[in-house]
């Protein structure tokens, strides 16, 4: 199957498109994740960090970071010929959170990317999706110089509900990121089925 065209006389498949958010703290790897898996050149809205932003952009633990997302990252990945994900990376700093509501509209689910060196930075994202009943998966981005912890320890530290998946990943690795995105879709589908069952009863 060539995307958008049929092969050997088969009727063209109209793919289902789903919107997934990628959220988390400043410098956690959201832009890297979207770029690693996107089959198109990702749209990025990165700007250089400046001296003026130093008081509000906490670069502790990510001192090598020189740019920041000021609106969103956007990418696309085809998981199957009939399933396409649109990825929207959210800005990490507090002052850009007014964009989150717009980005979250119509989202099937989300990835909350976490860095074990700055785990508290993803509390706000976890709270955001919990309050809006948007299903999410926590992806622990395993940085080379970060300590490794069992997923149960991360779950406890973030005080997550038992049903929220926690997965280890490498935001630079396409296959690793694909596994995270598959987890989001599966979790969101299970979440939707549970809600339908609750409404039916």
From TrEMBL:
<comment type="similarity">
    <text>Belongs to the GPN-loop GTPase family.</text>
</comment>
<dbReference type="InterPro" id="IPR027417">
    <property type="entry name" value="P-loop_NTPase"/>
</dbReference>
<protein>
    <submittedName>
        <fullName>ATP/GTP-binding protein</fullName>
    </submittedName>
</protein>
<keyword id="KW-0547">Nucleotide-binding</keyword>
<keyword id="KW-0378">Hydrolase</keyword>
<dbReference type="Pfam" id="PF03029">
    <property type="entry name" value="ATP_bind_1"/>
</dbReference>
<dbReference type="InterPro" id="IPR004130">
    <property type="entry name" value="Gpn"/>
</dbReference>
<dbReference type="InterPro" id="IPR052705">
    <property type="entry name" value="Gliding_Motility_GTPase"/>
</dbReference>
<keyword id="KW-0342">GTP-binding</keyword>
């Amino acid at each position: 199957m060539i995307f958008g065209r049929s092969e050997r006389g088969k009727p063209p498949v109209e793919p289902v498109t789903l919107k997934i958010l990628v959220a988390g703290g400043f410098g956690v790897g959201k832009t890297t994740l979207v770029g690693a898996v996107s089959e198109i050149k990702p749209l990025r809205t990165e700007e250089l960090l400046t001296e003026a932003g130093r008081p509000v952009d906490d670069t502790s633990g990510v001192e090598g970071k020189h740019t920041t997302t000021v609106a969103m990252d956007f990418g696309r990945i085809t998981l199957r010929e009939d399933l396409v994900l649109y990825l929207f990376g959210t800005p990490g700093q507090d002052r850009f959170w007014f964009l989150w509501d717009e980005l979250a509209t119509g989202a099937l689910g989300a990835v909350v990317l976490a860095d074990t060196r700055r785990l508290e930075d993803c509390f706000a994202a976890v709270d955001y999706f919990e309050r809006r009943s948007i299903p999410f998966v926590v992806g622990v981005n395993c940085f080379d110089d970060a300590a490794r912890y069992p997923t149960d320890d991360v779950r406890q530290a973030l005080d997550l509900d038992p049903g929220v998946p926690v997965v280890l990943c490498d935001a630079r690795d396409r296959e690793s990121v694909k596994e995270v995105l598959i987890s989001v879709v599966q979790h969101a589908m299970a979440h939707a089925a549970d809600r339908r069952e609750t409404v039916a009863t």
